[in-house]
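<purpose> Linking amino acid order to shape
<body> The protein record starts here
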Amino acid sequence: MKRAPSIGRHLDGFCLQMNTDVPYQDNYDLFDTPKSKRKNRQYHHQALIDAYYAVIDGGIPVRTACRLYGIPRETLRDRLDGKRSIDCENIGRGTLFTKEEENKLADEVSRMAKCGYFYSCKEITDIATDYCVLMEKRTSDQHLTLKWYRGFFNRWPELQMLYTKRPRKRNILAAAAENKDRFFKEFGDLLDRHDFTFKPNFVFNLHVSVIKTKESQSIGVIGCGSASGIAIPPYFIFQEQETHDNAVNSMNNIPTVVSENGYTSFVFVDYMKNHFIKFLPERKNESVLLILDGFKSHLCVELIGFTKDNNILTLFIPANCDTSLSPIEQCCSAQLQECYDELCLRKIHSNEQICFCDVACEAYNKAFSQEILGEAFVKSGLCSIENNSAV
């Protein structure tokens, strides 16, 4: 067994100040032990950092640094070549996301968990897969596996602890009441901080409704409106290309999308970047508030930078609460289907052709009228009756 170099050993004018707290002595067996008998990770992470900066700052050869600090040569070369981050402590293959990217994902999952949304294994892997596709790290058919899911939670013990303490079934109602109180407290703080109290046109609610056609087809509609009663035009989601082509033949400038999987994060990103942003009121560095539920498609890390750059604040409705906190879901969604059925019946009696987008847009304008939207916000407790301002 070779002796460890003494502390402060000089090599070519460079003084290696070695950390006496790191047990380098045991690392020198690594080069003299047969490969079949070696154990993984026979070095301390601090030794790797010291070797890295000894090469970068001190200019000593890689081979010498590996010998002095007891680091495998390929391990150090991967850090020097940029293949692996020097902060990465995992052995084996590198992680799919960088530490910063995965930190954003963990923060969003943690934020939703505090609102009562504890996503399943499949839902989290779906969210992460969509994140990969949006960042062009993978294609949509390369779905993340259970192995990635377990590694993700192992790398973020605080998130794992949060999921471990999730409320049991018998405590769900109590947790929902607590989350509801937290929601109104956060809502009140946002009103005071950004002066939304007398700016009801800056407070929006978003909800995805479904219209069932006479052919028993379900077509999604993203509806959004402000507390002042101003509705953003509808955005239609079709699951079949043929249905989409038949529906929009006679329409111009109607925002639509075809998605085989229905309402996904890709649809939500397209809606926010190409539709929602167009209809926001004129602002001078002022923020708008968007209230929405915790559906997994709304957890999109890709939109964090977009919402920050455009001063869009998001507030999620707590899980397991009634529909009273979502004005559109409470009042507008049911009326949308009723208005659509009524208009279709009229056209049938008058022997007129039914074009889906024509009828759906007319039904949307009725269900999302200023009077109905204003009343919906008042019923939800998010808007006062006296001056139609946010509470």
Remarks:
- The mean pLDDT is 82.
- The chain has three domains: 10-80, 99-164, 177-380.
